[in-house]
Amino acid sequence: MAEQRNDAQPAQTALDVLAKIAAELEKSISAKDKQIEEYKILLKIHGLDDVSDKHKGKLFRFIFGSHENKRWTLSLYNAINKTNYTNIDDLSFNTIRDAMYMRMKNDISFIISSEMNLWEHQSTFNPNMPMRFFVYGGRLYESIS
Predict the structure, then answer these.
(1) d(CA 67, CA 69)
(2) What is the pLDDT of residues 115-131, one digit of tens each?
(3) Do 96 and 131 reside in the same domain of the chain?
(4) Which domain holds residue 105?
(5) pLDDT at 1
(6) How far is CA 90 from the centre of its chain?
(7) Is 92 found in the same domain as 78?
(8) How far apart are CA 98 and CA 106, in angstroms?
């Protein structure tokens, strides 16, 4: 039987791998925090830092997320997707009301032609939007199944 040599580096433990990933995430978060601060400075320079995001989101939900204004939602959907839907009853809202994820609400979601749409109004830099959409989509699919 041939003798095995053990010149190789010891295998990384799961803790080592997690520590490395955590360090990389900390660097990424630090860079994003710096971008957010730079964005806030730009907003302040241009006098745009005193407008409440809460009110902007409420206005967006009122205009495009209410049953009374379905025709506006359908019009925006058609403009974005280059479609020609005319029947507002083809659009069915399924927005998660008061669903909180990191203190944020889901703005608007609806189904049209068997396709779920998630719309969010963003007036400030938000690096976690992909994660939010993933969570919202999961919650919405749970509610319709």
Answers:
(1) 5
(2) 989 888 777 777 888 88
(3) yes
(4) 51-144
(5) 54
(6) 25
(7) yes
(8) 8
31 and 56 share a domain? no
- Domain shared by 106 and 55, yes or no: yes
Q: Give the pLDDT band (50/70/90) at residue 102.
A: very low
pTM of whole model > 0.70? no
Sign (positive or negative) of CA dihedral 144, 58, 119, 133: negative
> Which pLDDT belongs to residue 39?
74
Of 91, 89, 94, give the one whose Cα is nearest residue 142: 94
- The burial class, CB within 10 Å (0-12 / 13-18 / 19+), for 136 is buried
Do residues 145 and 56 lie in contact, with contact meaning Cβ atoms separated by under 8 Å?
Answer: no
Residue type, 95: T
Token readout for 36 is 């957010």
